[in-house]
Amino acid sequence: MDNAKIINLYNLDETQAEEYLLDYLYPWEALSMICEMIRSLGPSLDPRLYEKTDDEVWIAKSAKIWENVGAIVGPCIIGERTEVRPGAYIRGNALVGNDCVVGNSTELKNVILFNHVQVPHYNYVGDSILGSYAHMGAGSITSNVKADRSAIVVKEEGGESIDTGLKKMGAMLGDHVEIGCNAVLNPGTVIGRNSQVYPVSCVRGVIPDHSIFKNNGEVVKRI
Question: How many domains does one find in the chain?
Answer without folding.
Answer: 1
